[in-house]
Every structure is written in structure tokens, then in C-alpha cells.
Design brief:
By secondary structure, the protein is mainly alpha-helical. The chain folds into two domains: 101 residues, DNA polymerase, domain 1 (Orthogonal Bundle); 179 residues, hpI Integrase, Chain A (Orthogonal Bundle), CATH 1.10.443.10. It is 60% helix and 4% strand. The protein has 13 helices and three strands, in the order H-H-H-H-H-H-H-E-E-E-H-H-H-H-H-H. A three-stranded antiparallel beta sheet has the order 1-2-3, with no helix packed on it. Helix 6 packs across helix 11 and helix 11 packs across helix 13. The longest helix is centred in the first third of the chain and has 32 residues. It is elongated, with a radius of gyration of 24 Å. The N terminus and C terminus are likely disordered.
């Protein structure tokens, strides 16, 4: 049987976690109202802050009572269990934002993250595909089948526009202007952008809407352009599995990610002399420095091509 002391301790821990959860929810509501962040970003903040809250609750502390030593102990424990610098930096960024918020709300007058240094992160270059690999990937779906035709249209749009996967799966028919040949996207932070689609992707979309889409839906109705066999919106995970399957079929040996075609879109545009600011607008980056990483990828690719053609040079 549990002793009264252990029951009391459990109750205190539950109360502490509940207080932390309420504070975290208030913080997330506030930053969502201020910045219009995506659900994925808010979910990442919540996961980071609640992981910290549960660790603090073992010492009868709610999250607003954390001090620098608590945070350093938490980070050290995460690093010992194999957390990478990028993951640690993201968590520390979440904590910083939270403590700045509760200071602004007058709940405390010191920031425990103020003197904690961010871990150094080498800026990794996004893995990209060659133009031949992109062609192989685009040709991998069996377009005689309705689902294969859908997948081909999705891959064509990704490569033609550089969309994020989350933006692609949420496209509705009303976002496409066939007369002007553009796609209207509302991206991160509710920023709207118009992206030219190109003849090839427009053709695949038109053909998909005129037949295969109706075959997939049968009598069902949905606003989403690319439904699943059940008539639902596709998930990011489902689309990731689709990309992996076609990459295997196309014998692509490069390491793939859900954003591989987005990276290829940006890199190939820059390789062909596109202006960096134009690529920034098309990708929906708020900061040019985020787009600049693609110039490094383009340069590395040009170096590789030079070595292939001039092995001694």
C-alpha cells in the first residue's frame, strides 16, 4: 500500500505540472496571437516546455520557478542521453522565449536563460538532387492509375514551386488561378505569396482534376486538391512515405528528405542564374540569410561538376 507521504508527494507533483501546463498554454496563446505561428512550431514549443516542466516537477518546482542551475542540469542530462546541438539549441530558444514572456507578464524579474550560451551549430547544407535525379523521381509514379497521377501532379508542383510539404498537402482548388498560371499560398506567419506554376505542372493539375481526382473521391466531397483514397486530406507523414517509395523506384541514392524537391527547386534556379531575392520570395523566407544557404549548395555543385570535367584542375 502507498503511504500518505507518497500520495501527498504525487498530488504535489500533479499540481505542479498542472500549474506549469497552464502557464505554457497562456504563453502559446500569446505568441500565436502576436506572430501567427504554425501549429507545428507551437507544438514544438509545447513539447520542449512540458518536457522541462516534468523534470522540474520531480523537485516540486513549476516551470516559472526554474533557475539557471535547473536549466543547465536539464540540458546536461539531454546531452548525455545523445541530444544533438541543433536539438539543444532549439530547446534553449523555446525556454528563452517563455521566460521573456513571463518576465513581461510580471511573474518574475530575472531570466534564467540570459547567461546560458547557445551550442555552436555547423550550418549543414541541405541535401539536394541533380536535375537527372529529379526527372527520374517525377517519372516514377504510374500515371495510368488515379493515385499515381495524383502523386505525379504533387511532385510536379513541388519541383515547380519549391513549396513546403505542409503547404502542398493543404492546397485547395480555389488557390490555383489557371488563367494567370499562379498558385496563392499563405505560408508561415500568415504571409501570402503568389507563385508561378509553369506549363508542365499546370497541365498535370488540369488532367488530375478532370478525371483521376473524381475516381479517387467517387461520391465524396473535399476542398483539398490532393485527397487520399479515403477522401481525406493527406498527412505530411503519408506524403513522406510516398516520396521514399518513388525515390527507391527511381534508384536515387542521395539521402532524401520531405524537402528534397524544395531544395532542388532553389538550387537549380540559382544554378541557372536566378536572383537570390526572387528565390527568397518564392520560398517564402522572411530572412534573406535563410535563402543564402542555397548559394553555398549551388557553389558546391558547380565545384563538383568542374572536378568531373577537369579531374586534375
Amino acid at each position: 500500500m502507498e503511504t500518505m507521504a507518497s500520495i501527498k508527494s504525487k498530488n504535489e507533483t500533479t499540481t505542479t505540472v498542472q500549474r506549469s501546463e497552464e502557464l505554457v498554454d497562456r504563453f502559446l496563446d500569446a505568441i500565436w496571437m502576436e506572430r501567427g505561428l504554425s501549429q507545428n512550431t507551437l507544438g514544438a514549443y509545447r513539447a520542449d516546455l512540458m518536457t522541462l516542466s516534468r523534470g522540474l516537477a520531480e523537485h516540486d518546482k513549476s516551470i516559472d520557478q526554474a533557475d539557471k542551475a535547473d536549466l543547465l542540469a536539464f540540458i546536461a542530462k539531454r546531452v548525455e542521453s545523445g541530444a544533438k546541438p541543433r536539438s539543444t539549441a532549439r530547446q534553449l530558444s523555446s525556454f528563452r522565449r517563455f521566460f521573456r514572456y513571463i518576465m513581461r507578464e510580471g511573474m518574475r524579474d530575472t531570466d534564467p536563460t540570459a547567461d546560458i550560451e547557445m551550442p555552436r551549430i555547423g550550418r549543414s547544407l541541405p541535401q539536394t538532387l541533380t536535375e537527372d535525379e529529379v526527372d527520374s523521381l517525377l517519372n516514377a509514379p504510374n500515371t495510368d492509375e488515379p493515385l499515381g497521377h495524383r502523386d505525379r501532379a504533387m511532385l510536379e508542383i513541388l519541383y515547380a514551386t519549391g513549396l513546403r510539404v505542409s503547404e502542398l498537402i493543404n492546397i485547395t482548388q480555389s488557390q490555383i488561378n489557371f488563367n494567370q498560371g499562379v498558385l496563392r499560398i499563405v505560408g508561415k506567419g500568415d504571409r501570402e505569396r503568389l507563385i508561378p506554376l509553369g506549363e508542365e505542372s499546370l497541365r498535370w493539375i488540369r488532367e488530375f482534376i478532370d478525371g483521376p481526382r473524381m475516381e479517387i473521391l467517387l461520391e465524396r466531397q473535399t476542398d483539398y486538391l490532393f485527397p487520399t483514397r479515403r477522401g481525406d486530406r493527406m498527412t505530411r507523414q503519408a506524403f513522406w512515405h510516398i516520396i521514399k517509395r518513388y525515390a527507391k523506384k527511381a534508384n536515387i541514392r542521395s539521402k532524401m528528405s520531405p524537402h528534397s524537391l524544395r531544395h532542388a527547386f532553389a538550387t537549380h534556379l540559382l544554378n541557372r542564374g536566378a536572383d537570390l531575392r526572387v528565390v527568397q520570395l518564392l520560398l517564402g523566407h522572411s530572412d534573406l540569410s535563410t535563402t543564402q544557404i542555397y548559394t553555398h549548395v549551388a557553389r558546391e555543385r558547380l565545384k563538383d561538376l568542374h572536378r568531373e570535367h577537369h579531374p586534375r584542375g
